[in-house]
Description:
By secondary structure, this protein is of the alpha/beta class. It is built from seven helices and seven strands, in the order H-H-H-E-H-E-E-H-E-H-E-H-E-E. The chain has one domain (4-204): Rossmann fold (3-Layer(aba) Sandwich), CATH 3.40.50. Strands 3-2-1-4-5-7-6 form a seven-stranded mixed β-sheet, sandwiched between helices. S-adenosylmethionine (SAM) is lined by residues 22-23, 25-26, 49-55, 73-75, 89-91, 121-124, 140.
Amino acid sequence: xxxxxxxxxxRYYIMAKDAGFRSRSAYKLKDMDAKFRLIKRGxxxxxxxxxxxxxxxxxxxxxxxxxxxxxxxxxxxxxxEGVVTVRSDITARExxxxxxxxxxxxxxxxxxxxxxxxxxxxxxxxxxNRVYDHFRSFELSKSALDIATALLKPGGNFVAKIFxxxxxxxxxxxxxxxxxxxxxxxxxxxxxxxxxxxxxxxGFKAKN
Length: 208
Ligand SMILES: C[S@@+](CC[C@H](N)C(=O)[O-])C[C@H]1O[C@@H](n2cnc3c(N)ncnc32)[C@H](O)[C@@H]1O
């Protein structure tokens, strides 16, 4: 557990506040995009587990005025210029996919496979039990992968957070089977004590 005083001394927390980002996590996506070139101008990006919206702000800057960012969370997300928000539980995969298809089509994208990038920073509320928290994180990451499989264009990119634990390698292998290039990465802004790691898939293989 990270203490409030520690958070306020944190360099990324201060940078995010100064830059107007809603979360220090914004710097994790910036770091991963700089390293792996995930998001291009004009892209359609689906951001899962997006509240309060730091990643969506970064994605919106990267996609520019001709791109589209769709942010999904259980919680309400305050309006972000140029970003469409959807309230949904990503573990209810079919329902979430249906809502996302509607938004994609409404914005002139292909409802079948209309996204260049699917991101997930979704995380469960921590219980303090590492094994249980890992399992719930795996469930969220797997949901994100299923949603990505339904909505990514061939060649598209994927990023999902997972807490390290028993099912980590299962998840990594699933991503590896679906993308041309798979990596695991811990951004510089990840807290040292956090079990989080991001699995990055580049180049979604065409569905048969
Ligand atoms: C670490 S926060 C995301 C921070 C965000 N990337 C940012 O930069 O502002 C994790 C989010 O996952 C969301 N979440 C957890 N379970 C979810 C679920 N089943 N469906 C949708 N969102 C979920 C939480 O509500 C929370 O807002």
